Amino acid sequence: AEMTHGYTGADLAALAKEAAMAALRKAMNRGMINVELDVIPQEVLNKLKVGMSDFQEAMKYVHPTVLREVIIEVPEVRWDDIGGYETIKQELREIVEWPMKYKHYFDELGVEPPKGILLFGPPGVGKTLFAKAVATESGANFIAVRGPELLSKWVGESEKAIREVFKRARMAAPCVIFFDEIDSIAPARGSRLGDSGVTDRMVNQLLAEMDGIGTLKNVVVMAATNRPDILDPALLRPGRFDRVIYVPPPDLKARVEILKVHTKRIKLGDDVNLEELAKRTEGYTGADLAAVVREAAMLALRETIKERSVKAKPVSAKHFEEALKRIPPSLTPEDIRRYEEMAKRVRRAI
Ligand code: ADP
């Protein structure tokens, strides 16, 4: 019973059945049951004992309904895998990595790090990468929860799901919880018609969980959104997501660095000039730039294979030229202006 916290009645029934099956399989493997028989005689079944190890075996297959989607990852993203954004990296190091790594200094000095960190900015600028890097570099586990999934997969159980996420994180501590697209589960309370009851309850649960973890803790809550303006303002109050970081589209310098990260293991032709490429990719996000490199590499690979070249052909300027044509920037100058405006408003609001 202790091991099955979070299992529903149906889950427990399935677990018992699976454990019995495990015991049966074991008995068959040991030759205690004649596998040629269509029906296993009752007296043999009566002698079958379902042990603790059978339950343990069954737990590998039967997971509690609510926890099924909460996957604990050991992330592998390092600061060096993120091109550019040096100021943001440094800030995250100080406010999350340090409190986790050097908890004792913070305790001793009575310094309180922020409780939750909200990253906002357009899609594809590396918000998820930042959260993963924070976890990797502080030696923490990582739980990513996508807002829309939480709503759709746990219909009617969404608050329970939030509770479980936090419980799991405490069990896996030190741990970084990352709520992606948090606006979908935490829009301003009462602002949405129809299902607002669900999101209201989720916001309340999220706030309660965040209030419940002390500041000097080894569970860090991070979240990302591209719509900070529609978030419930209660989330931004002290003790909740009290640090808001704007991740803008990459500027020229960041684009050079991102291109460097993604071409690190690629054989480039002598005619490839990453600075030049960066100049021509205004409006491209990190994700777009990664796609351009991938596309250029595929074009070179196709050529190599088609020509049955003995050695792989390097990825050259013409491949990048073609890749740029195929992959347009995902942000227009108007989008970028809109994000800058939003950043100003959010800064004023907190
Ligand atoms: P977001 O969470 O902001 O939508 P992601 O972190 O999921 O964006 O980024 C998507 C992909 O784009 C990453 O896996 C990575 O390949 C690439 N990428 C985005 N930003 C960067 C960056 N600054 N440096 C290197 N790669 C990046």
UniProtKB/TrEMBL annotation:
Start and end residues of each AAA+ ATPase domain: 113-251
Family: Belongs to the AAA ATPase family. CDC48 subfamily.
Protein name as annotated: AAA family ATPase, CDC48 subfamily
Full-length numbering of the shown residues: 385 to 734 of 737
